[in-house]
């Protein structure tokens, strides 16, 4: 039913850049806020950034402010994450998801496979 397909991950040197894409289906894409989450080995899955359904409002975790940019193309049902000035601590599996409510930033329970981002020092 719901499909979330992340792509664009890879291995990069510290200071490098990467652009992730999220192809979403199963819901009316433009009706939902979207978010990018990440999970490092042995750690919880945390919200990195979110964008409102209209694209007019964004949220960034303090750890990525000034380095990451979230965007969306509602005509293509795709969300993007541009990551610049990558640090080793950004290493994680990155996931996208629909967000239920802007205030809480709670995601739905279905998760895709994610895409691995590895930043070497």
Can you describe this structure?
The mean pLDDT is 97. The strands form two sheets. The chain has a six-stranded mixed β-sheet, with no helix packed on it. A four-stranded antiparallel β-sheet has the order 1-3-8-7, with no helix packed on it. The chain is 0% helix and 49% strand. It is mostly beta strands and 121 residues long. The protein is built from no helices and ten strands. The radius of gyration is 13 Å and the shape is globular. 31% of the residues are buried.
In terms of DSSP E residues, the strand content is over 45%
End-to-end span in angstroms?
Answer: 40 Å
Helix and strand element order: EEEEEEEEEE
Average predicted confidence as pLDDT: 97
Unreliable runs: none
Mind telling me the C-alpha Rg?
Answer: 13 Å
Based on secondary structure, the structural category is mainly beta
Q: What characteristic shape results from the CA principal axes?
A: globular
Q: What is the makeup of the main sheet?
A: 6 strands, mixed
Please report the total strand number as a whole number.
10
Determine the number of helices (DSSP H or I, runs of at least 4 residues).
Answer: 0
Helix content: under 10%
Question: Order of strands across the biggest sheet?
Answer: 2-10-9-4-5-6
Question: What brief labels describe this structure?
Answer:
single chain; 121 residues; mainly beta; six-stranded mixed β-sheet; four-stranded antiparallel β-sheet; 0% helix; globular
